[in-house]
Design brief:
binds adenosine-5'-triphosphate; 12 strands; alpha/beta; binds magnesium ion; Rossmann fold; four-stranded antiparallel beta sheet; 9 helices
Length: 291
């Protein structure tokens, strides 16, 4: 009952970048980035705009061309996999992008169900869903929407939901997918503090269930709630360690060259990121607030 075809696929929980280089028209977005993440870890990625954070996320699903180094997911060289193998790995990875990748015309519940269907196109998914979603999937979708506080929105057109609600639909889709590796690129952009807490807890729950969790955050205060923080600067890993070691000096270095009008606000460390702690958001919500 609980075994799905996906469970036969190799795990995608741990991953590593070895001197990874990704270039766009001669400019390196990743410039020799090295990072090793063990299965089940949770880490926050921070860094100035343009530092290569989104590119780091994309390279882990082979969403960009690699021009140097190596990327392994679940111990396998991602860029040497066949198309079929790659598809299998991608099914085990759940992503939230800066734009949530939802199908706006579809009901929220169908978008959430996309998590299960994974590699299938939206139309095939819709057909499957409308032809009669199996009861188990329907109840998982309902449960996932409930967990992100959208239990009453399953039938609402996704395009009619607010930005924050759409973001939560994307998280519900992740909960349905139950991936090995969760890559969340700024999942808290444009949501209020209460929603942030809800989404944060849902992501932590996936991690507690065994998924590796990597979250890109602009809020340094929130990043400090992760046991491991990785900072990118100019396409390289400039810091990798526990948040206690992320000093103001280190942060100034990391954000040097960013918008000169931006100033780093350094909130106090806030525990180890346990799901029950209330989130204290820095003033202005973003750790890096503009004045
Ligand atoms: N598809 C692309 N084509 C050309 N250049 C790109 C592309 N994607 C990213 N870049 C460049 O690569 C660099 C890193 O971009 P990336 O999106 O990884 O930054 P980021 O750290 O996610 O920034 P932000 O915090 O603003 O989202 C930037 O200089 C960006 O302009
Ligand atoms: Mg980005």
């Amino acid at each position: 009952m609980t075994s799905s075809p996906r469970s036969k696929e190799p795990s995608a929980r741990g991953f590593a970048l070895e001197k990874a280089v990704v270039s766009f028209r001669g400019t390196a977005a990743l410039d020799g980035a090295t990072l090793e993440v063990e299965p089940g870890e949770r880490l926050a990625v921070v860094g100035a705009s343009g530092a290569g954070k989104t590119t780091l996320f994309r390279v882990l699903t082979r969403g960009v061309a690699l021009s140097g180094g190596r990327v392994t997911v679940g111990g396998r060289d991602l860029y040497s996999l066949s198309k079929g193998e790659l598809k299998g790995v991608r099914r085990r990875i759940g992503s939230i992008y800066q734009a949530y990748n939802l199908v706006p015309q579809l009901p929220a519940g169908v978008n959430a169900a996309l998590g299960e269907v994974g590699g299938m196109g939206a139309l095939a998914t819709l057909r499957t869903f409308l032809a009669g979603p199996d009861a188990a999937l329907a109840s998982r979708v309902a449960g996932a929407l409930d967990r992100v506080g959208l239990g009453d929105k399953a039938r609402a057109r996704t395009a009619d939901l607010s930005g924050g609600q759409q973001q939560r639909v994307a998280v519900a889709r992740l909960l349905v997918q139950s991936p090995d590796l969760v890559l969340a690129d700024e999942p808290f952009a444009a949501v209020d503090p209460v929603t942030t807490e809800r989404v944060f807890e849902a992501l932590l729950e996936l991690n507690h269930e065994g998924a590796t969790l990597m979250v890109n955050l602009h809020d340094v205060g929130l990043a400090r709630r992760f046991p491991r923080v990785v900072a990118l600067r100019e396409g390289q890993v400039a810091f990798d360690g526990p948040p206690e070691r992320l000093s103001e000096e280190a942060l100034n270095e990391i954000y040097a060259g960013d918008d000169p009008h931006q100033e780093v606000v350094l909130p106090e460390p806030q525990g180890d990121g346990g799901p029950k702690e209330p989130i204290q958001l820095a003033e202005g919500r973003d750790g890096v607030s503009s004045h």
